[in-house]
Amino acid sequence: MFYLQLLLLAPVVYGDAVSDLWDKGKPALDAQLAKSTTCTKDKLLVRREWGDLSADDKKAYIKAVLCITTSPSKLDPAKVPGAKTRYDDFVAVHINQTMSIHGTGNFLSWHRYFTWAYEQVLRNECGYTGTQPYWDWGRWSANPETSPIFDGSETSMSGNGEKITHQSFMAPAGNGGGCITSGPFKNMTVNLGPISPAISPAPPANPRSDGFGHNPRCLRRDISNYLSSRYTRTQDILTLINNSKTIAAFQNTMQAAGTTMGVHAGGHFTVAGDPAGDFYVSPGDPAFYLHHSMIDRAWTIWQAQDLQNRLQVIAGGRTMMGFGGAAAALTDEVNLYSVASKAWKISDLSNACIIALHISMHFSSSNRCAINWRLIGIP
Known about the structure:
The protein has 379 residues and is α+β, with helices and mostly antiparallel strands.
């Protein structure tokens, strides 16, 4: 039995209209949950937005992430000599599959499983008892640098990079660009890549063309609100969900990165720097997993708006933008190799059991009312 615990909290106290869409879709999800004999409420776990975690919960998550950045890699050093830590194993898997997991029919399901697998390693190998937090882009879109995610405090995912003269390729240069100097990850080492750097001066070239050589360097960021205040606001999330009538429209709008920009690229390039801005190596920045937990939340809410017609749907190819490859199918497998023990079909990762959610109310430490949305997994 594989239990996938995802996407779990939609706070309403700050006027998040996305939560209204969740409320709209909840009855269909409740009805689906009631039909299941394997997705039972005793298996539910809760994911929360970073800003709603207590200081102790944030520290517990940070401790677990730091743990896997010091735990040894399980990859074959002859194949991936640059992977020195368990954290690097995830980066290597993403690098290896990049061209077949973006602009593809498996984009959403692959990253759902990838984020869950990361959460499981934190729990099973580093003693973490919590769940993967998410970054509600809209909540912090006006000024992400001062958000509790990136404010550089001991309970953040570390702050901006040192201000240096630089160019960022997807937005005007912000107030960073250099190595991060504050927060829990200020001494973190990036070992793999770069392959497609999106900042100048670029990080030193990798000794191997595939990015798998050992190339130790600092974690760099160039956080600004240039993209977040234009493309990842709550209204942008609402437009994505409400205006996308097909899975093709939803995932294409989400992944847009050109004259217009979707929330996927908008989140990555709000952090920017190295490796967050590198298409291949982006999981090398630990903020990646908060971002993709929110990607999964958006997909779940979109599905819930027309559940029976959006559970088992797929569009796109097996290679990026469908160039030179066959169409993706629900029977295609998602295989994470060294970071997850089982390959799952896309149909399994999209099914009703995964997004069968249960609502409960609670009060946080600041006495603010919030909604927990909970989910279980694949039978």
